[in-house]
Amino acid sequence: MSKVDSLVKDFLAQKKIAVVGVSDTRESGCNLAYRKFKEAGYTVYAVNPRLTTYEGAPCYPDIKSIPDKPDA
User: Fold this and answer.
1) Angle, CA 19 vertex, CA 21 and CA 31 arms, to 5°
2) Do 59 and 52 contact (CB within 8 A), yes or no?
3) Which of 23, 42, 48, 49 could bridge across to 61 with cysteines, CB 3.0–4.6 Å?
4) What pLDDT, in 10s, does the model give residues 2-55?
């Protein structure tokens, strides 16, 4: 297994993931990642200092504001 494959596998083994950069004004890779992780059963936290909610869930201004520390 390559080093990159190992790093990806380690990342995907995390259960609580913060997605920084979700947007309510355009579709972005961050929005797609948020949805895909959510659909796959991860606990996902949206992070954007301009938003208070994202897709009906709380959106945090920064990672430090997330009440339950994310794994990744």
Assistant:
1) 65
2) yes
3) 49
4) 888 888 888 888 899 999 999 998 888 999 999 999 999 999 999 999 999 999
